[in-house]
Amino acid sequence: MKSGVLDKFWDHLPVTSATPKVSLGEGDTPLVKSRKLSEIIGCEDLYFKLEGCNPTGSFKDRGMVLAIAKAIEEGGRTIACASTGNTSASAAAYGAYCGLPTTVFVPRGYVAQGKLAQAIAYGARIMLIKGNFDDALSLVREITHKHPVILVNSLNPYRIHGQKTAAFEIIQELGGAPDYLFLPVGNAGNITAYWLGFNEALQKRWAQNRPKMMGFQAEGAAPIVRGAPVEKPETIASAIRVGNPASWASALKARDESQGLIDMVSDQEIMEAYEMMASSEGIFCEPASATSIAGLLKLSGDGLNLTNKKVVCVITGSGLKDPELARKIDTVMEEYPADLAAIERALKVT
Description:
Elements: H1 5-8, E1 31-33, H2 37-41, E2 45-50, H3 60-73, E3 79-82, H4 86-98, E4 102-107, H5 113-121, E5 125-129, H6 133-146, E6 150-151, H7 157-163, H8 165-174, E7 180-184, H9 189-203, E8 212-218, H10 223-226, H11 248-258, E9 261-265, H12 267-281, H13 287-301, E10 310-315, H14 340-347
Parallel strand pairs: 2-10, 3-4, 3-6, 4-5, 7-8, 7-10, 8-9
Antiparallel strand pairs: 1-2
Helix pairs in contact: 3-4, 3-7, 4-5, 7-9, 8-9, 9-11, 12-13
């Protein structure tokens, strides 16, 4: 049985006989059919692609495994990335697995603690930058250009090729491409990768169509929607808190060629979708992932008719990446004595 992105999709990736076939078990993430949200929006064929089931809890592992494998093939001895959290965790994990020292540049105060904890545990060197993600990315690009350090951000083309395999998996599960794909947009590498994957699948005749790409940014970090970089991006969805996406042009290409859109949603809409996914669908996702759900709800409320359409929402990362956010959900915790009768009275059972 084939295991891992490189093994499963070897013939469809830019690899050679010298590329090491490394893996932490990434890929083959579940495609789960909706039970509740489908009723709300009137779409019987609504699915969630659970990328939080990858080894480090996010979709980043798909591209990182290929980037690391190619780095080893090319004689690389150290890697670096800028990150709002997920990329740093993934790079640190695969760097540790392959024995490559890893340096991550993260904007100080703008990274979820769950993600930073991963990078720490994997043994990465963490450089806290007094600035935002765009400042960190600018620095790591300069460092990797001037010195023998390999950049593993999504500017690395191998990252995009690894991430496109999620599109292949969706087609395999559904027996063809969906009509719509909803996903969050931050640095815009993922929407770029999915569009590449669906295009290649069409060329290979694995599918007869390509989906409309429906990307969503947070209102406080929506440079593509606003048409200009955002100097100080702000949103509860830290994974997409990006003011000047590196893959901006390719995101626009995906939007336009697919006749889709890139829109924005508020932090309140993201939080409502975040809570709904957990309480109604049993899926605990990080806030950036909930952006795609918030976008779906917004368009459905504005009249988008999804009857008889196949729709997939990409759930990019696990809610365990940012567990502190869950504490903002209003809930009641009651204390009871360790007494069966008291518990029975509270539950109104006898």
